[in-house]
Amino acid sequence: MNMQKDNYLWWRDGVIYQIYPRSFADSNGDGIGDLRGIIDRLDYLAELGVDAIWLSPIFPSPDVDFGYDVADYRGIDPKFGSMEDFEELLAQAHQRNLHIILDLVLNHTSDQHPWFVEARQSKESSFHDYYIWRDPAPGGKPPNNWAAIFGGSAWEYDEGAGQYYLHLFYKEQVDLNWRNPAVYQEMMDLFRYWCDKGVDGFRLDVFNLWYKHADLPDNPRQFPPSPPFFRPWDQQKHIYDYDQPEMMPALAEIRSILDSYPARYAVGETFPEDAASAARYSQPGYLHAAFNFEFTHCQWLARPFQRAIERYEQLLSDEQWPCYVLGNHDLSRPATRYARGDEDGRLKVAAAMLMTLRGTPFIYYGDEIGQRDIPIRKKEDVLDPIGKSFWPFFKGRDGCRAPMQWNSCENAGFSSTQPWLPVNADYSTRNVENQAGDPDSLLTFYRQLLTLRREHPALHRGSLHMLIEDPRFVIAYERRYEDETFMVLLNFSNFERALEISELSASEWWTPVLSNYPYDQLVTEDSVINLQPNQALILIKNQV
Ligand code: NOJ
To answer: Which numbered atom of ligand 1 lies nearest the CA of 69?
Structure first.
């Protein structure tokens, strides 16, 4: 790939930070985060060194699924602020060279969206065909066997319309009929509307569900069921309810709209998570990227992580660009999955990997200080509806959505009042203020990694070459761009590991540039590097 050093492209070379707006910073003391709160923290994000902010949905919503049930695609929910607040956020972010990505939930609207309110009045309503309706099957049964991802049938009978409507998530999240040209046009116009406002990019929620097979045939049974096994959804082969051929032309049109503006971006959430379909939808001319969630399923071992990287690299062509995530608002936090107790060593290894791979890294708010999930102990405390319906098999997603821990003041500096979800009990020690002043903290390490990555094209756009074929404990790779080469060594084990550098890379001289251990502990004799337990070490090849 032939790219100019000065040709820094924010979404490709930069780092994207996900904010769950309810939980980031509450400026008006109602216990819920808001846009002013985010504006107040933009300097923090600029100092962290990220290039863009992905905001989980900020549109008006009755919050059955906390924003993922949208009642107006063109407005701002008053609990987050006004359109003026949003415009100020955009302007202030841009002043700091931070880009704004909105989360578009276009598979379904809230049942409170005026389109659906109209649509359910009668079959004759001009909005009826905005959604997917069918008459009852004989005996009043649902029209087919489709299951909802959040449990039960995907069909809900509506008295007003005298028909069933389709919902692949909650019944309050009504699936749109993308085959209706009016809906399609609404959606294309929406991309233009937000681009015209100056928004830089979009995260597309479960985009590959937009189209269903036109005839809505029954899905065949899946036996044995697929994980997590307990839902009717897991007992079907999903042939007809997503990944339909109409997806590709729709994405191509969205791409051409985005390409008619400078440097716009779209990243898609494929559902279910699958690296191959992420690769298919991010081919040139379609999405810029699609999430590969494989890391979030890896055990803390070198081999599964390396295999996930290799598989993804193989699936993508040279023109495609990977993107990596360790967590998001639907998943248990990486600290909860990987860390041992209160110790952050493994999180530093994970951070070093995320920031030095070939691809765009995403950071979920709070992961840069190693926030842990809050414990969910009682069903009565659960706010996420799927946590209630699948209790005790699945306790919902509240755990990873707790308030950002800014300081050791009451409510972790998130709010002057009791927050909508409890703050993690460890906030008095684990918080941004403490870590910002600590040279050995995870936050400091993240900042150092981001600075290094930004300064060196080899670390963001360079080629990637694995150095150990079948790693047991240590992942080692080279990143190279023009005359610059870095070596990244990641010790996934809790023990010291000796590595023969000659085996890794001829008899070159390397200089350490960043590690989570002091360099004087880096014993190199006879070209042997002794990596400390959970040490991440980045070295640069000396110029001869
Ligand atoms: C995926 C989102 O990430 C999740 O939070 C949401 O519940 C579903 N899509 C439905 O919109």
So the answer is: 11
